[in-house]
Give the backbone structure.
Amino acid sequence: MGSSSNIDDIHRAVDYLNQTAHWVNSSAEDDELEDVTDALLLAMHDLRSVLVRKKADRMMKKAKAKVPGE
């Protein structure tokens, strides 16, 4: 399991992502968006891919655990 400090860092990262979304929606200038868009999209794509794969792995483990005789 991850340490409490790591989990706290992740919760802060979620807060930063929410703040970033608010900034993009409310006050970001075009040149600022041009500067950060590609990096944000790539990071979010990579994170989403890992999260979806890990979620699927957990679901498969749970499903196998419920199947009798296997």
